[in-house]
Amino acid sequence: MLLLIRAAALSSLLVLTACGADPAPGAVEQIIVREPGAAAAPAEAPADALLAEGKAAFANCATCHSLEEGAPNGVGPNLFGIVGAGAGEVAGFAYSDALKGSGITWTAAELDSFIADPAAKIPGTTMVAGAIADAAKRQAVIAYIDSVTAN
Length: 151
Description:
By secondary structure, this protein is mainly α. The chain has helices spanning 2-19, 46-61, 97-100, 108-116, 118-121, 135-149. The protein is built from 6 helices and no strands. Helix 2 packs across helix 6. The protein starts with a helix and ends with a helix.
């Protein structure tokens, strides 16, 4: 009987010792519980997030520029359809000679360098405000402009 009690005590001691040991890290399963009939929330696609960021950032640009087809020019030209167009070609806007003579076609790369620092890209431009230093924000704005005004 004494032997049986000692064996039980030893087993208990081993079990308690094992409880404090760190198990090897492994995969963790995550279970998500929803109400019956509830649909899973769709994850926002990266492109949608980029366009949403671009739309928010373009709010600053909208002080001078429009993206609506046929809208009048403001302090800056209407940017509808600008991606792929030549610099200085929006009808009815008084561009600087520097911009008109630049020979630039507004690709995403050209827009990016212009928006980063208009005066450095085209010395003599009249766009003196609105530079966007953050490269990710510029990419978002360009993607938004292109998505809104794509033909």
